[in-house]
Amino acid sequence: MTQDQRMALTRAKRFINLGALTALAVSGGADLASAQTVVKWMHVETVPAYIEVWEEIAAAYEQEHPDVDVQLQFLENEAFKAKLPTLLQSDAAPDFFYSWGGGVLRQQSQTGALMDLTEPMNADGGAWAKDYKPAALNGLTYDGKVYAVPYRMGTISFYYNKELFQQAGLNAEDIKTWDDFLAAVTTLKEAGITPIAGGGGDKWPLHFYWSYLVMRNGGQEVFENAKNNEGEGFLDPAIIKAGEQLAELGKLEPFQGGYLGASWPQTLGVFGDGRAAMLLGFEHTEANQRTNAGDGKGLAPENIGRFPFPVVEGGAGKVTDTLGGLNGWALTKNASPAAVDFLRFFTSPEQEQKMAAAGMIIPAATGAEEGLKNPLMREAADQLAASTWHQNFFDQDLGPSVGRVVNDVSVEILAGQMSPEEGAQMIQDARELE
User: Fold this and answer.
1) Contact between 369 and 354 (Cβ < 8 Å)
2) CA–CA dist 309, 323 (Å, integer)
3) Most buried in the list 184, 218, 268, 366, measured by CB within 10 Å?
4) C-alpha–C-alpha distance, residues 278 and 273, integer Å
5) Is 152 helix (H, G, I), strand (E, B) or coil?
6) What is the pLDDT of residues 170-222, one digit of tens each?
7) Is 237:214 a contact under the CB 8 Å cutoff?
8) Is 294 helix (H, G, I), strand (E, B) or coil?
9) Does residue 303 contact residue 163 with C-beta atoms inside 8 Å?
10) Under DSSP, is residue 49 helix (H, G, I), strand (E, B) or coil?
C-alpha cells in the first residue's frame, strides 16, 4: 500500500462504525489484508477536526510501522455505554477504548476484561509511567494496578460574562467564599440579570454544585470514607451541610426559567447568548458556548472570565482541590503488542502537545500543556498543575448505580423537592446496595 493510499484509507476511517466494519473488510479486503496487525481503536469523539488530528497521528505511526493498520471505530456516547459491556466479553472487542475512569473502569477491571498495564508502565525504571502527571496515573490505578493509559484531564470552574458582571458592579476576584458567591447571585438578580445558566434536564450538570460543596466542606478524607462506606458514609455532617448549602442556593432561584428541563447544549446556549452571567462548566466552555449560541458566535473570548469554585468558611476543603474529568484509554486483555505500542506513541508528550495545540485537550502527559494556545484552557491547565486533590466526577467515580442517585438528588435538593437529609440517605442507601 502506498503512503497516499494509506492516508486515504486513514481519512476514510472517520466514518467507520461497528455496523460498517464488515462491509469495509469486504470492499477493501486487499488493502486491509496487507497489514499484518490490525489495531482497533474505539472512541466516542464527534468533532471532525479532532478526529482528523487523530488520523494524522495514526498515519504517522503507520508510516513508521507498515505492518500495522490502525482502525478508528466510532460509537455514539449512549450506545457506547450500553454496548461496551457485551463487546468486552466478545470476539469483537476493540484493542483499546475510551474510558471516563472512576467506578465503571474499576468494575471493568474486576471482570478480567482489561489488560493490567502495571508491568509495562513500570518497566525500565518506570519510563512509560513518567510520561504522565502523577494525579492522572493514580486516578486510573485500582488496587495498585494500572488499568488505563492517561489521556486528558479537566476541571470544572465558574465562567462568567465580564460585561454582565460590570453592569451589576461585581468583581469576580472578590468571590472567595460560598457566602461571597451567594451575595453575587443576589446582586445579579437585583440588577435584573439571571445569575446562572443551569442544565437540570440532563441532571449531571447540577451535580457539580453538590460535589464541590461536599469537597469544600468535608475535604478528601470525608469523601473517601463515604465512597468506601466507612465512618458515617454519606450521612457525615459535612455532607449534610453541603446539601443545606445547595438548598440555600436553590431558594435564591438563580437559574434561567425552565432550567429543570434544559439540556447541556441549551444551557451553553443560554450563557453564549448573554442570557445568564455565570456557568459552572468544563474547560472547553469558551469554545462550546460559541457552538451552542443562537448566532453561532456567542460571547467574545475577551468577554469571558473564570474563577474557581469558592471555599466554604470553616470547611476542610481547599480552593486548590479540583473536580473534573480524568479520561484514559483502556486496553482489552487480548490486545496485541502493536496496540500497546501505538497507544504509548499516541499518548506520548509529543503527540499530546499536538492535541493541546489543536485545542482538543488539557493533556495528561507531562509538559504537554505547553502546547495550549487558548488562554482560558491554559488557566485550567495551570489550576490542575497546582491541584492539591483532583477528584474525578462523583457520578463517574462512584459507579453508575450510585452516580445516577447523586445526579437525581442534586437536582431534587436544588429544586426544593427533597431535604438534604433525605438526599444523603438516598445516596447512602444506594452505596450500601452495591
Assistant:
1) no
2) 9
3) 268
4) 12
5) strand
6) 999 999 999 999 999 999 999 999 999 999 999 999 999 999 999 999 999 99
7) no
8) coil
9) yes
10) helix
Neighbour-count burial for 408-424, b at 16+ CB within 10 Å, e otherwise: bbbbbbbeeebebeebb
Q: Are strands 96-99 and 37-43 parallel, antiparallel or unpaired?
A: parallel
C-alpha cell at 104: 465503571
Architecture of domain 157-323+398-433: 3-Layer(aba) Sandwich (3.40)
Say if strands 389-392 and 321-324 run parallel, antiparallel, or are unpaired.
parallel
Q: How many residues does the chain have?
A: 434
- What residues does CATH 3.40.190.10 cover in the chain? 3-153+326-385, 157-323+398-433
Domain range 3-153+326-385, CATH architecture: 3-Layer(aba) Sandwich (3.40)
Cβ neighbour number for residue 19 with a 10 Å cutoff: 8
Q: Record the pTM.
A: 0.83
Handedness of CA 398, 399, 404, 405 (dihedral sign): negative
Cα torsion for 48, 347, 81, 147, to the nearest 10°? 180
User: What is the mean pLDDT of the segment spanning 292-312?
Assistant: 97
Cβ of 209: how many Cβ atoms within 10 Å? 23
Half-sphere exposure of 266 (CA within 13 A, CB side): 15
Sheet of strand 278-281: strand arrangement:
278-281, 157-161, 304-307
- Cell numbers of 256, please? 434561567
Query: What cell numbers appear for 219 in the block?
Result: 475535604
Please identify which residue in the block is written with the cell numbers 499518548.
347
pLDDT digits (tens, 9 = 90+) for 361-380: 999 999 999 999 999 999 99
Q: Which residues of 118-157 are buried (b: 16+ CB within 10 A; e: fewer)?
A: eebbeeeeeebbebbbebbbebbbbeeebbbbbbbbbbbb
The C-alpha atoms of residue 58 and residue 51 are separated, in whole angstroms, by 10
Q: Determine the 3-state secondary structure of 26 from DSSP.
A: helix
Q: How many angstroms separate the CA atoms of 14 and 67, rounded?
A: 21
CA angle, residues 226, 231, 234, in degrees to nearest 5: 35
Burial (Cβ within 10 Å: 0-12, 13-18, ≥19) of residue 390:
buried
